[in-house]
Predict the 3D structure of the following.
Amino acid sequence: MTSFEIDKREFIKGLSLMQSVAGRKTTLPILSHILLEWEKNFLFLTGTDLETGICEELIATVHEKGKASVSAKKLYEIVRELPEETMSIQKKENQWITLQCGKSVFNLAGLDPEEFPSLPAYQEEHFSTVSTQLIREMIEKTVFAASNEESRYHLNGVLFVQTKQGGKEILRMVATDGHRLSLVDQENLNIRGIEEKGMIVPKKGVLEIRKIIGDRDGEEGMGIYFNSTHGFFKMGKSLTVIRLIDGEFPEYEQVIPKGNDKRLVMSKEKMVSSLKRVSTMASERMEGVKISLKKNSMEMSSTHQDFGDAKEEVEVGYEGPPLQVGFNARYLIEALHVMETEEVVMELKDEGSPGILRPSSTTGPSSQFCIIMPMRL
Amino acid sequence: MTSFEIDKREFIKGLSLMQSVAGRKTTLPILSHILLEWEKNFLFLTGTDLETGICEELIATVHEKGKASVSAKKLYEIVRELPEETMSIQKKENQWITLQCGKSVFNLAGLDPEEFPSLPAYQEEHFSTVSTQLIREMIEKTVFAASNEESRYHLNGVLFVQTKQGGKEILRMVATDGHRLSLVDQENLNIRGIEEKGMIVPKKGVLEIRKIIGDRDGEEGMGIYFNSTHGFFKMGKSLTVIRLIDGEFPEYEQVIPKGNDKRLVMSKEKMVSSLKRVSTMASERMEGVKISLKKNSMEMSSTHQDFGDAKEEVEVGYEGPPLQVGFNARYLIEALHVMETEEVVMELKDEGSPGILRPSSTTGPSSQFCIIMPMRL
């Protein structure tokens, strides 16, 4: 009988990563399963929702190689409750498996593992190794601006683009929901397979990568490459394959405002906490806050039709003429949250034009900015 | 103009306690409000859902006494975001209030405070002082067994009963949902106003008391008394008034099994973790686990129609004849969780009779047990 043994801690690590993809789609019963394949000294776990697929390599003691497919959720629930010991798993004739640990015995219903959808094959030699920390930072600086509206599927992701500036290779990530846009550039990063128009990686997949990176530091590199339909991300013993969004990303370079000549400098922390206060009186749907600028002063104000109104004045560095403009407070707060400098710069033109937020200084070889559309208030 | 000043930390403490009652019912707009009354050196906050009412006394600097009624949620959201400073609140002519703190100004819509439903009046001299720690323990040992089914409203609470045993005054709490029952007795506790048939305090109110007690230790006493319609609970500067459930609590003494002559002793921790494992394969709706006893051994087993089956053997102290009986695993786990001893005793009769769980020894002047109805599996 084909079987293997595995340590609980090793097993649970792999199983927990599978939970976010396995069972997310319930159209096909087998998608709520994970594939277990044991061979040599390894157990390979695979889970997929047909958009994001994850494969994990775990250390196991294999007696004879084999395969099985069982419920991802049930197996996780069981293993989570087991003591920290070694357990043994045996394949039975009816596709079921028997899991034994101490005096506990579980028989888990299985499906034919040959029916499990296979992940697209990858080619080891195509991976470019990049810093996990840089990728995490770039994801965090953009993904919040991607759209959640399913009807705008071409905006439901982060665009990866490869550009050149002054002879330097630059990896760019851009995300937009039509109301705001966030862009980050990183010098000296080159990923294989990115087409000229860029590749749209879906938000769910990007967040999955973010989760797998977790709190790992930059020391450990991560392998990435793209083919025309998928992105491949390899980290340690974990491979994530993400189906790209097949759509046209907007011509984002055309919406970057050019003539924003009113420039103000402000403390990020002060701005965030003032916005949080004033936006308590903004309408829940519009979340609009009016910004009124005069020399070295910004007044923020909001009015709620049921609850009342709020206003607050903040000192800023501003030498331009008086100006009023309305913005969605949450968009401002979310953009400020991804700036790493203590001071941020806001560039405005007039009440009908988008504003630009950027860090007061660029940190090393990376640069970023957010564009936010104005609101009539 | 009538106004007061208050420290943020003092204010937020009171406002956060109001959030669970104010706005829970949306039938009357004023129930989403809290009443603010300032006088002498105090601000009194009152919130109610007409079942549970809370009144808090806070320290404030009052310039002229006054009253206002504003949205509990909005005021909390605003004060939470303010810096830790003193703020001033002024009543305006249109029932609104103006809140100022540093450079922030908020105008909050108000309603006529005279329309705010007043809490039942209490009589200071009626309070019996009891240990908060004992009340918390008694609540925790019973409230989980109360029913959540709205149609069985007479079971939606904890019965407070005053009894006598061997000349000693005993406070008893009992809760049941018809499938299980939990009872705890505490010697030398006497609360004024408890009628002979007992008083049913609704689960929501009991949980509110539990929350207000928080992690306070037993040093600080709490005042309690009942009149025929309400329970009054006073702790520090906080008064909670709970409308009692007007219904007949079942004759719980009649359902306490008498002839349970099969007695087994087991480790609480081991039992809980085995039950958690085996119940992963119990059906989601029934949560049934079969218990099979033989000399010094208990086997637990479960079967799920889609996922498979589980079994596990645990060593127990048992000298009786073989016996099989089914129970809801969650009811067993929840009952075990409120036992404080390392070992617990289970008393059974046969497969069709309820089981009793109790601590292996009684801790001091308190005693408790849980009754769980059997299931056919």
